[in-house]
Design goal:
Distance between the termini: 87 Å
Shape: elongated
Bound molecules: adenosine-5'-diphosphate, magnesium ion
Radius of gyration: 37 Å
């Protein structure tokens, strides 16, 4: 009945083969194949699979199934994993799964043995269900595909996504977004005629339509010639024109219908007798079978597209011989096929299954669903083996509901929800729980049957909604649960519901309301006794207050939480609160104890991770590395972050919390001057396309690096990438660094107005002492801007405006309130003091020497190189040539080593105009050596001094550090004349020496 020859589709195959080539070349590729049922999507995908396999691809196919008996969450992924498990040698498979093995074995238990022996899974068991959010699963799959594509290029086909569950859609969309430089081709097929207006696939298709990296193939029906060719291939002879004409006419060129019609033609010979409607065409082939075979097909259709053979035998109620005969008949007539796993049977095409199912009388359908329910309940082993408990629960929920047996459907739905939750499919769990809520009022003994009350079901539904990211739904479900709670209900229970509610509020951005709910919840708890509920609620409150920028309140709540947790042995809450408290203390200035508390929290979190999940441990690594960096313990901070990253990778959090850890590892490297390493880490993490705040923190670091390097185009674009995400946040750890980088670019470019604008709001935000760490760099640049500006006035022989002096005083006031409790903070304090003196025109080498010493202590070469540059400048002014030369050399060498082109350029320029020897200068010292930092200075600033043309020429040579004899030679004048010019110029500029004159020229933006 099936054409052994692949008909037509040349253009489509060519397009797909190009994608195979792309995938081979490490350019991950995607194709969407849409078309009506039976048109040939699967056949095309199979043909592609065969060609890919021939080219050495690893070919994986996952089938989405209509929600129902087989509607297991993430079924296509499970299919693909099963294929891998059965085709790969265990050691190769172990490597491919790597850290993902424990997590993925929750979906396919046969992967579990691989977990036991793997080194990565050793320290920690798979995290508890609640901890494993969707994001983690997605990441584990992405990692696995990446590693697999290292072994062989991969073709992953996801079939029939119009039936996909939410989790599968999320996974597909995620892979399309995130796969980049992997040898992978993802092919997605879907029925275009199934997409009603509110189908969840629609918005995804729309977004994919705009994506030029995705190929779309709309499969059309066969034309007359193709139908002729297909018939020829099926019948084994050239069909008569009348046959072709009728089959083409009746099938409309739909390949599946052509096959079915060919079957009728074969059986009856006369195509003119064909029944009128399409469903009738399909059914006419069923009707031609014996009654037993027909009954068998009807029974099978109730199970879905596929059914395990023992289950079918049980429900069909046929004797062994009759069953065997009926099965053979259905298979011989190409209506059923042996299922791919050999354990059962499947309809050759879903179209026939649907036609048979729809054709049944309602009473028979209900009776058969009940029969499946009974059979499965009697002997759970009848369910498809590998789908295990989850498959059984889902099947029972489906059949009892369709059998209208609500009392049994209710507990089955709740079971199915639990399994869905365990297999990373909160959206499907939500679906089951919402059904349970719908049935609930119709079942009189609902409580007895489920062992739960309605409040608990609503709460679980709220939890599932929360985990699937449906925050609004979560809120209403939890509110509903609270409303359902009788007035005399246990207040502790109400309090814990409020806690869940508060967490949803917090994550919806309503941190104030969240704290309020938690306080309210605490008020409900019985006074005079300390319970686990106290501990959990206080820990949650501490967390909410930290997010709400209330460090003092946070520390207090955390302390209370720890005390409560200890009193009742709630170790998880103790770990959670310790991690919060440690960070809060460190920020509030009690650093050493803060560090101890954090380390303690980390240890506790690691000890309890097996039961409580790894989230607290990850938070501990993030906070601890952050605090160590705050204390300028760069190397240790980087190490702690690296340890945390390993855990993040193992539990599938490297694209989320792991990004914070990448940032916390890159930042100390950046401060230590190991820019290339920091760069590489950030680039690797960004290549995985982390989303939202997680990616933004990395863009921010990259912007800072680029600004320090003087690569302003890159700095600007990275800054924009970060700002998009942070535009609504008020959290200083995100807002202040953005201002700092924007100001750094502006200062380097000499645009002082823009620099001032960039820092303006940041100064206002620097009010709280604990935010010092983020405020200091901003305050420094603000003062540096004022110093540059004041110097410009002096160079022009203008008065420094009073407003500028006032701003300096104001900034000094802000600085006086900031903490200097760590080396880097003290370093900024010295920089600000020295810049203040520079703004006042009183800076001496002493101020800059203090800044130099402070940055040496903090071990940060970048600000050190800047301070050295200013120190050299101050020595030059004081005529201390030897000291100036030492400082400028060190500044230049440091900046050059770092790749800090603007500072290196300034140092080289200073050396040249002050005639200092630069040991490391090689002419090309640093990309733009000799180019002033302020290279966009205002117009012709020298005009104001009334110089003659000749004097101007001489001045530019002075600015380039030339001596009088050199100038004389260059301009073909006598040395005496040159010297007279120089004296006149110094007088007109109002400066005391040629070095100062050179500095004025340089600062006013004239090239020497
Ligand atoms: N290009 C083709 N050449 C030969 N037979 C085809 C071709 N396309 C589809 N068919 C046959 O038509 C039937 C329906 O095709 P299928 O790929 O299952 O459709 P879809 O997946 O679009 O529902 C299958 O039995 C298939 O073998
Ligand atoms: Mg198909």
């Amino acid at each position: 009945m099936v054409s052994p020859v692949f008909i037509g589709r040349q253009d489509e195959m060519r397009a797909l083969e190009r994608l195979l080539d792309r995938a081979q070349a490490r350019d991950a590729a995607f194709a969407l194949i849409g078309g009506e049922a039976g048109v040939g999507k699967t056949r095309l995908a199979r043909e592609l699979g065969a060609r890919a396999a021939g080219e050495g691809f690893c070919v994986l196919t996952g089938q989405c199934v209509e929600l129902g008996a087989e509607g297991l969450p993430l079924a296509p992924l499970v299919d693909a994993l099963r294929t891998l498990a059965r085709t790969m040698p265990p050691d190769v498979l172990g490597g491919v799964l790597g850290p993902a093995a424990p997590g993925l074995s929750r979906l396919l238990p046969e992967l579990a043995p691989l977990t036991a022996g793997s080194a990565s899974g050793a320290a920690l068991a798979a995290p508890a269900g609640e901890d494993m959010q969707k994001a983690q699963l997605l990441e584990l799959v992405l990692g696995t595909l990446g590693r697999l594509s290292g072994v062989a290029p991969v073709l992953f086909t996801v079939e029939d996504v119009h039936w996909a569950d939410r989790s599968t859609l999320d996974l597909t969309a995620f892979l399309i977004r995130s796969l980049r430089n992997a040898r992978v081709l993802v092919v997605v097929t879907y029925r275009s005629d199934e997409l009603h207006r509110r189908h969840p696939l629609r918005p995804l298709l729309t977004s994919w339509e705009r994506d030029r990296s995705i190929d779309r193939i709309d499969l059309r029906r066969f034309d007359r010639d193709e139908v002729g060719a297909q018939l020829h291939a099926i019948l084994g002879e050239v069909p008569g024109p009348a046959v072709t004409e009728t089959v083409f006419d009746r099938s409309g060129g739909n390949a599946y219908l052509v096959e079915e019609l060919a079957g009728t033609v074969k059986a009856h010979g006369d195509p003119a007798d064909l029944p009128p409607s399409l469903a009738d065409v399909l059914l006419s082939r069923v009707d031609a079978l014996t009654p037993d075979a027909q009954k068998l097909l009807r029974t099978a259709s109730v199970a879905g597209r596929a059914v395990p053979d023992r289950l079918l035998a049980e429900v069909a109620g046929l004797g062994e011989n009759e069953l065997f005969a009926a099965l053979r008949e259905a298979v011989e007539n190409h209506l059923l096929v042996v299922a791919p796993d050999g354990q059962g049977y499947a309809f050759r095409h879903a179209l026939t299954r649907d036609a048979v199912y729809e054709d049944m009388l309602p009473g028979e359908r209900v009776r058969l669903h009940a029969a499946y329910g009974e059979a499965l309940e009697r002997d759970p082993g009848l369910a498809a083996g590998e789908a295990g408990q989850a498959g059984l629960a889902t099947a029972l929920a489906y059949h009892w509901y369709a059998a209208l047996d609500l009392p049994r459907a209710l507990p089955a739905s709740i079971d199915a929800a639990r399994y869905a939750m365990d297999s990373y499919a909160p959206a499907e769990a939500l679906r089951h729980l919402e059904r349970a809520l719908e049935i609930w009022p119709r079942v009189t003994d609902a409580k007895q049957r489920t062992g739960l009350d309605r409040v608990e079901v609503s709460k679980r539904a709220g939890e599932a909604a929360y985990q699937s990211g449906a925050l609004d739904r979560a809120r209403s479900l939890l509110a509903d649960a609270m409303a359902e709670l009788p007035a005399d209900a246990d207040p502790v229970r109400r309090a814990l519901l409020l806690e869940r509610y508060a967490i949803v509020q917090r994550d919806s951005g309503a941190t104030d309301e969240a704290a309020e709910s938690l306080r309210q919840a605490l008020g409900l708890l019985p006074a005079g006794e300390t319970t686990r509920a106290h501990a959990a609620l206080l820990a949650a409150l501490a967390n909410a207050l930290m997010r709400n920028d209330d460090m003092e309140g946070c520390a207090e709540a955390a302390r209370n939480a720890i005390a409560a947790a200890r009193a009742c042995g709630a170790t998880g809450a103790e770990a959670d609160a310790s991690v919060t408290l440690g960070a809060a203390m460190a920020y509030l200035g009690t650093v050493d104890t803060g560090l101890d508390v954090l380390r303690f929290g980390l240890r506790l979190a690691l000890e309890t991770a097996a039961t409580e999940g790894s989230y607290t441990a990850l938070r501990a690594y993030v906070n601890l590395s952050d605090v160590l960096e705050l204390l300028s313990q760069h190397a240790e901070a980087a190490q702690v972050a690296a340890d945390g990253l390993k855990l993040a990778e193992r539990v599938g959090s490297s694209r989320t919390l792991g990004c914070y850890l990448v940032g916390n590892r890159a930042e100390p490297l950046l401060r230590l001057g190991r820019w290339a390493e920091a760069d590489r880490l950030i680039a690797e993490a960004l290549a995985d396309r982390p989303e939202g705040v997680f990616g933004a923190t990395l863009h921010q670091l990259r912007a800072e690096l680029a600004a320090m390097r003087g690569d302003y185009a890159e700095a600007g674009s990275e800054l924009r990438a970060a700002s998009q995400t942070f535009s609504h946040t008020v959290d200083p750890q995100f807002t202040q660094p953005l201002r700092y980088v924007a100001a750094l670019i502006a200062v380097h470019q000499g645009d002082l107005t823009r620099a001032r604008d960039a820092v303006a709001t940041g100064i206002g935000d620097a009010s709280e002492e604990w935010t010092s760490r983020y405020a200091w760099p901003v305050v420094w640049l603000a003062m540096r801007t004022e110093a540059d500006d004041a110097t410009r006035y002096r160079d022009r022989r203008d008065d420094v405006p009073a407003a500028s002096t006032a701003r300096c005083a104001e900034l000094a006031g802000v600085a006086a309130r900031l903490a200097t409790t760590a080396p880097a903070l003290a370093g900024y304090g010295q920089l600000v003091a020295a810049e203040h003196a520079r703004a006042a025109g009183t800076a001496t080498a002493a101020e800059w020497a203090a800044a130099v010493a402070a940055w040496r202590a903090a071990a940060e070469p970048y600000p050190l190189s800047y301070a050295l540059l200013r120190l050299a400048e101050a020595h030059v002014t004081a005529g201390e040539t030897a000291e100036a030369e030492a400082a400028v050399n060190e500044a230049h060498a440091l900046a050059k080593r770092l790749g800090a082109a603007p500072v290196a350029g300034e140092a080289a320029a200073l050396a040249r105009r002050a005639r200092l020897n630069l040991a490391s200068a090689d002419g090309q010292a640093s990309g733009n050596a000799g180019q002033p930092i302020a290279d966009s200075g205002p117009g012709d600033e020298l005009a104001r001094f009334g110089l003659t043309d000749r004097e101007r020429e001489v001045l530019l040579l002075v600015a380039a550090g030339r001596s009088n004899p050199e100038i004389a030679k260059a301009l073909f004048i006598s040395a005496k004349t040159a010297s007279v010019h120089v004296s006149n110029i110094l007088a007109k500029l109002g400066v005391s020496g040629r070095v100062e004159a050179a500095a004025v020229v340089h600062r006013l933006g004239q090239r020497g």
